[in-house]
Amino acid sequence: MSRITVIGGTGYAGSAIVAEAAARAHQVxxxxxxxxxxxxxxxTYVEGDATDEATLSAAIEGADVxxxxxxxxxxxxxxxxxxxxxxxxxxxxxxxxxxxVGGYSSLRPAPGxxxxxxxxxxxxxxxxxxxxxxxxxxxxxxPATPATLDWVFVSPALRFGAHVPGEQLGRYRLxxxxxxxxxxxxxxxxxxxALGFVDLIEKGDHHRAQVNLGH
Length: 215
Hints:
By secondary structure, the protein is an alpha/beta fold. The protein has helices spanning 12-23, 53-60, 80-94, 128-141, 190-203, and strands at residues 3-7, 27-32, 43-47, 65-68, 97-101, 151-156, 173-175, 209-214. Helix content is 29%, strand content 19%. Strands 3-2-1-4-5-6-8-7 form an eight-stranded mixed sheet, sandwiched between helices.
C-alpha cells in the first residue's frame, strides 16, 4: 500500500485515479479547490488552493507518490507551469514519485516525429495557450528537474475528457511518447485511464519518461 496524494483529485482524471487507487487499498489524499458532492470512502479530502505553496507542502508531506492532475485553464491559466514547478520541487524534497496527467498534443505521431503541439492549425485558437502550457511540462520543465526526482508523464488518447467520456472497457493499451491510436476511433474512458495509471504506479517500470494510454 502506498500513500498517494492526488492534486486536482476531484477533476475528471483526478477523481477517477482517486477512485481506482482507493479501490486497491492505497492510502489516498485528494487536494482540490472544493470538496466533492459524493466523497469516496476511505479517501482523505483536503480543500485548498494549489497555487498556495504551504497548502501543497502539507498535502505532499509524507506521500510516497504525488499525482498532479491539474488543468492549464481557469484559475491556473497564467500560473500552471509555476504551480507544477512547485509541485515537482516539493515532491523531490519529500522523496516522492511524481506522476503527471498529461495531454494528447504532447505526443508524437511516429518515433522521432515532431509532437502534435507543433502544429495546432486545426485547433481553435482560444485553446492554444493551454495546450502549449500542458505540453511544455514534458518538452521543457520535467526534463530540467533534478535527477533525484523520478517522474512519469501519462498522456491519454485523443478526445479525452468529460465531454467525450468514452466507454469503460476494463482494459487499455500502453504506449511510449508515440500516440496509441484507439482501435475503434473512440476515446479512452476516465476509468480505464485510471486503471492504467495506477498500474503504472504499482509496477514502477518507467522513470523520467512519457507514456500514453489508449483503448
